[in-house]
Sequence to fold (548 residues):
Amino acid sequence: MKVCAEYELEVLDEDLDAYMEEELEKEEKEKKLTEVDKKLLKRRAPVVSIMGHVDHGKTTLLDSIRASKHKIVASEVGGITQSIGAYTVYLDNNKDKKIVFVDTPGHEAFTEMRARGAKATDIAILVVAADDGIMPQTIEAINHAKAADVPIIVAVNKIDKPGANPDRVLQQLTEHGLVPEEWGGDTITVKVSALQGTGIDELLEYILLVADVQDLKANPKAEASGVVIEANLDKGKGAVATLLVQNGTLRVGNCIVVGTACGRVRALLSDSGERIQKAEPSTPVEILGLSEVPQAGDYFEVVKNEKEMKSIVQERKEKERDKRLDAMLPAHVRREAVAGEEDIPQLNLIIKANTNGSAEAVSQAIAQLESDEIKTKIIHVGVGDISEADVMLASASNALILGFTVKEDANALAAAEKEGVTIKKYDIIYQILEDIEKTMLSLLEPEVKEVELGKAEVRQVFTIGKTTRIAGCYVTEGKIVRSKDAVLYRDGKEIFRGAIDQLKRFKDDVKEVAQGFECGISFAKWNDIEVGDIIEVSTTEEVERQSL
Ligand code: GDP
Fold:
C-alpha cells in the first residue's frame, strides 16, 4: 500500500517532468530564435551624445555638425527643418557613414535617460574648451559616461581662440584617467573649432571608427523597440514623441507600448520633417498617435495587437501604483539597490564635499572600509552642493549620496524624493565612516550562530512496541524543547544528530521541559539510546554582524 506522501511525490515527479520538458522546449525555441536573429543582424549607425562644461561649445558643435552634414529635405516639404531631439548626419554624403546625434547636450539629459533604465547613447563626445580646460562639469560628464560604460571621444574645442592651450587640456585629461592616444593611452582626442568648422570631419571619422570597434548591430526584421528621446503635448496633434528605433523597423499602423502610454502609430516624421512609412534601427523619428505623453528615457516596443497593448499598459499601471506605495515607506538603502558583481554586494557612493581636500579625505577614508564580502565603489566625487545631476547619477547607478559639509539645492531635494535616492549629510568624517560601515553591515547576510538551549541526562530507557525506544530523562541544564537540532552524546562522543520526534511530560505531549524536571524523549530516526547518554538541544539564531 502506498502512503499519501508517496502518491504526492509521484504526482510531483510527473509535474516536474512536464515542467522540465516545457522548459527544454522553450530553451530550444529561444536558441533557434537567437540563431535566426543573429543571422538577421545588420550593422547600425552609432548614436552619439555631447557632454561637457557650460559654454565650452556643445550647442555650437551640434549646430555646426548639423548645418554642414545634415541632409535637409525640408525645403521640399515647406522649408521647415524641425528639431525633434535627435538628427542624422552623413559624412561625405555617404549613406554608409551615418551618425545619429542626440540633440539635448549635457550629461543631465543623458543620465536622466539612464535613470529611467534606457541606454540610448553608444558614444559620448566630451567637449572641453581649450582656453578654459577641464572644469567641474567636465569631470561630472566623465564620471557619468564612465558609470554608463560608454566610450568617450574628447573634442578639444575653441582651438581658434588666442588663449587656447590644447596641450594643457590633454595633460588635465590624464589626471582624470583619460590618457590621450598620442601620449600612449587609448582616449581619442580631436582638436576642433566648432565656430569655424575646423576638425569636424576628423571628429566624425573617429566616431565611425569607434562605432566599428563596438560592432553595433540590430535586426531590422524584428518588431521595433527603442527609447523615447523627448516628448511633449501639442495642442493640435496631441502627444508627440521622438523615438529612437534601436532594433526592428517601426511602421505606420504599428501598435506600440511606451511606458504606460500606448497607441497605434498614426504618422511618422523624419528628423527633416518628411512623412515616412517606416523607420529602421538607429533612426530618430517623431510619432503621433500615443494616448498620453511618455517620459524621455522610457522604452517603447511594438506589440501584436490592440488587445495585447492594452493588457500590458494595464499591468504596468498597476505596477506603477505599487511602486508609488513602496516609495511612501521610509527611505533606506534596500538590498536590491546594491549592484554587485560575482555575488559580492557593492555599495555605490557619490561624494560631494565643500573642498577638494575634504572630498579626497572622505574618499580615502571610505576606501579603507573594504571587506571580502562587500565592496564600496565611488562613482563620482565632486566639490560643491548636491545638485539634481548628482541625484540623477545616483538614481541611474543605484548609489547613495554622501554630503560632507554641503547642502542639497531645492531641485536636488525634489529629484531625490521622486527618484527615491538617499542623501546623507555629515560634518565629521568619523560619523561618515561609522554610518557607512553600519550600512555595509546591514547589507550583508546575518551570521548564523548555534545557541545551546539545554541538556538532559538519560536515566531510564523504555521500549514501546517492537522498536520504538523512549529515553526517560532528567533536564540538567536550561530547557529541552522539541526541536530539529538535538544531539545525542555517549561517553562524550556525538553519536546522533537530528530532530526530536516526541517530548512528553507523563502522558502529555509538550513543547518544552525546564531544568529540574523529568521528561520522555524519542527521536524520529534513532533508537539506540542507553542510560547515561546526554541529549543536548540547540537552536540557530541570526545575529547582525558587528564588524566588517
Ligand atoms: P554650451 O553651453 O557648451 O552649449 O556652449 P555654446 O555652444 O553655447 O558656446 C558658448 C560660447 O562659446 C558661444 O558664445 C560660442 O559662440 C562660443 N564658441 C563655441 N565654440 C567655439 C569655438 O570653437 N571658437 C570660439 N572662438 N568660440 C566658440
The pocket of guanosine-5'-diphosphate is lined by residues 52, 54-60, 105, 157-158, 160-161, 193-195 (CB under 6 Å). The chain has eleven helices and 30 strands. Residues 69 and 89 are 5 Å apart (CA to CA). The radius of gyration is 33 Å.
